[in-house]
Design goal:
The protein is mainly β. Helices cover 11% and strands 42% of the residues. The two termini are 41 Å apart.
């Protein structure tokens, strides 16, 4: 083989390997909850428990489901604000054989047995993304819905108290805003870097990724008391912003009276690259997952990190799947069929 041909061959091999690495290892998935288990099929949360127990909420505002060790499924709760009732089931996880369930509209968390019997509950003085740990303390991300560029706060509430404590703050990258017709309210540029947050399902670990450069992001995690678990600056290769993604964003934002695609192209900035991190998921075991692709791109590419911030590889979530939860050995994700019915899959993540 001529030297020039050999050089070209090795260049092609290197390019192929780099492309495969950037796409990551594709997950292998099995059905965990089929559409026949639910009428609604709009899954919000899933919680695998000990001895094959499983709990989930499928969009019923006042109910969740529990599958026991024998495979029997019980629907628990109803619409309301009384004991054992919910306005909107938002999050859940297991504490041994008990399951805590958080209401997304009422500031409280209730604890149930694995047969669905109400055991206890804690109601806070203000709403937040609360979660429990078996004690009389709730911890979660605060609701920062008013104003611009307010930081994400990790809040703590002790049962019976009259106030809420702030245990940690994740700063927000100042956002560039533009007036959007017809109300002309100020909106953040959708394709520019911003702070991304995530918490472990058991509400023991809260993390944020703050952009600090074109190819660097600072990842910081704290525990329920606000003590630092991780503070590390990562260098990540920027991913190009494709024409397809930009056109899709413009089209989506133009779907309102008084807007046109031409108008939105003048308003929405088109940077060369996507933000380094577009979503963060956190394992109960401490690992982190950083989504590197836009939510309209398939498959979605995630960079995995250990609890100390050490890279653990790149994973490709199958086309059309939406991640609900990540664990050290599994990814829980939903897919939607042509009729709009959703299925929950458990995918092997490796270690």
């Amino acid at each position: 083989m001529k030297p020039q041909a050999a050089t070209l061959l090795w260049a092609m091999i290197a390019s192929t390997l780099a492309s495969a690495q950037s796409q990551g290892t594709e997950l292998s998935c099995v059905v965990a909850i089929s559409p026949s288990d639910t009428e609604f099929g709009r899954f919000v949360a899933v919680a695998p428990g000990p001895q094959n127990r499983l709990a989930w909420t499928d969009g019923r505002s006042g109910q969740f489901s529990i599958r026991d060790t024998q495979g029997r499924v019980r629907r628990v709760g109803r619409q309301g604000s009384g004991p054992g009732e919910f306005q909107y089931v938002a999050a859940m996880d297991w504490i041994g054989d008990s399951l805590w369930v958080a209401d997304g509209r009422l500031p409280r968390v209730q604890v149930f047995s694995d047969t669905g019997r109400l055991l206890s509950g804690i109601t806070a003085v203000l709403p937040a993304g609360w979660g429990a740990d078996g004690s009389n303390v709730l911890v979660g991300f605060g609701n920062m819905s008013l104003g611009y560029d307010l930081p994400f706060a990790v809040l703590s509430y002790t049962q019976g108290a009259t106030s809420i404590d702030t245990v940690a703050v994740f700063p927000i990258t100042p956002s560039e805003r533009f007036p959007l017709p017809p109300a002309m309210g100020l909106n953040s540029q959708p394709l520019l870097p911003t702070t991304v947050i995530g918490g472990s399902p058991n509400h023991q670990r809260f993390c944020g990724a703050v952009p600090v450069g074109e190819d660097r992001v600072q990842v910081r995690c704290v525990d329920r008391q606000g003590r630092a678990l991780l503070d590390r600056t990562l260098q990540l290769e920027p991913r190009p912003l494709s024409t397809e993604v930009y056109d899709g964003v413009v089209k989506a934002w133009s779907r309102a009276p008084g807007r046109t695609e031409s108008m939105l192209r003048d308003l929405i900035r088109r940077p060369r690259h996507l933000p380094l991190v577009l979503e963060m998921a956190v394992e109960n075991e401490g690992g982190l997952w950083l989504r590197r692709t836009h939510d309209s791109e398939t498959p979605s590419i995630w960079t995995r990190l250990g609890g100390d911030g050490t890279p653990r590889g790149v994973v490709s979530v199958p086309r059309g799947y939406r991640v609900l939860r990540v664990d050290a050995a599994s990814v829980w994700a939903t897919s939607t069929d042509a009729d709009g019915l959703q299925t929950v899959h458990r995918c092997g993540a490796g270690r």
